[in-house]
Amino acid sequence: MPAPRDAVSTPLLRFAPSPNGRLHLGHAYSALLNDATARRLGGRCLLRIEDIDPVRSRLELIAAIEDDLGWLGLAYERPVRRQSEHMSVYRAALDPLIARGLAYPCFCSRGTIQARVAQTRAEGAAIACDPDGAPLYPGSCRILSGEEAAALRAQGAPHTWRLDMACALDEAPGPYAFRCFEPDGSETDVPADPSRWGDVVIARRDVPTSYHLSVVLDDDAQGISHVVRGADLLAATDLHVLLQRLLGLRSPAYHHHRLIMAEDGEKLAKSRGSETLGDLRAGGINAAEIRAKLGF
Predict the structure, then answer these.
(1) What span, in angstroms and rounded, lies between the C-alpha atoms of 105 and 95?
(2) Model pLDDT for residues 196-214, shown as the tens digit of each residue
(3) Could you tell me if 34 and 245 are in contact, meaning their C-beta atoms sit under 8 angstroms apart?
(4) Spatial CA neighbour of 59 closest among 2, 20, 98
(5) CATH number, domain 12-293, options 3.40.50.970, 1.10.630.10, 3.40.50.720, 3.40.50.620
(6) What's the rounded Cα separation, in Å, for the pair 229 and 141?
(7) What is the C-alpha end-to-end distance of the chain, expressed in Å?
(8) Peptide bond into 54 cis (omega under 30)
(9) What is the sign, positive or negative, of the torsion defined by CA atoms of 147, 153, 159, 160?
(10) Cβ pair 199, 162 in contact under 8 A
(11) What is the rounded CA–CA span in Å between residue 16 and residue 30?
(12) What is the C-alpha separation between 74 and 17, in angstroms, rounded?
């Protein structure tokens, strides 16, 4: 069953973009839906900037995000939480997981992993994939002895930290589920299967966290009671409920909304160069037209 949420007098939501590109219509839909849901529930919606990526996150993009949201007619409380200012919090959560034997250092580069997967396929063996379609990590570094891993770290070898899924599930056995809520306020329990993510990265090479780790810590720290986010993150919730249980965190209720698609049927994405709100604004479209187009 889902971990219980503390009673809250006011429902609290958050819109949490990453400043690695300009907002597009998909972001606008999510921001407007969060705002509308908060109003319907009689609650509040916060803005959070998820800027753990030290390379792609830029100050000018944070300013652009806030400008686009203001143009849409959305206003948020200050100060706005920025993940880059809370690395010590993430480190403090990661270290106990390591000490409990629930996370291990992984020295494999992306290229090394891809080569091993390709070799396995060439040998005719089946490759298990995570819900996003990426091959599961084969566990190459999980079998390193403590001495071997320590020696590599002492040499300064770059490494991520991976959750040892088997050990995590042994320490916090299921069943797992999370609460999903609908626009009418009704809630249902949805079964979750964290194991399908395998030994997922919970801390990057350059920062002591990952999206998965920081998002559950931030939601708990900010007292988020309801999470409204895209359907592309539905499967990730399986992993998040496991991390919440391991870390003793509260579990919000979730609503995973439809995605806004491009004309070619693909999901809008910064990486695909999707048309941004800035592009639309420059083309003469006003905020009222955008809100109407998205159903608000």
Answers:
(1) 12
(2) 999 999 999 999 999 999 9
(3) no
(4) 20
(5) 3.40.50.620
(6) 33
(7) 35
(8) no
(9) positive
(10) yes
(11) 10
(12) 14
Q: Which two tokens stand for residue 223?
A: 């007292």
- The answer to whether 244 touches 251, Cβ cutoff 8 Å, is yes
What are 78's two structure tokens?
Answer: 């200050």
Unique residue bearing structure tokens 């809008």: 268
Q: What is the 3-state secondary structure (H, E, C) of the chain?
A: CCCCCCCCCCCEEEECCCCCCCCEHHHHHHHHHHHHHHHHHCCEEEEEECCCCCCCCCHHHHHHHHHHHHHCCCCCCCCCEEHHHCHHHHHHHHHHHHHCCCEEEECCCHHHHHHHHHHHHHCCCCCCECCCCCECCCCCCCCCCHHHHHHHHHCCCCCEEEECHHHHHHHCCCCEEEEEECCCCCEEEEEECHHHHCCCEEECCCCCCCHHHHHHHHHHHCCCCEEEEEHHHCCHHHHHHHHHHHHCCCCCEEEEECCCECCCCCECCHHHCCCEHHHHHHCCCCHHHHHHHCCC
Question: What is the value of pTM for the model shown?
Answer: 0.93
Tell me which residue of 291, 255, 246, 273 sits closest to 38, measured CA to CA: 255
pLDDT digits (tens, 9 = 90+) for 209-250: 999 999 999 999 999 999 999 999 999 999 999 999 999 999
Each domain of the chain, given as residue ranges in start order, spans 12-293
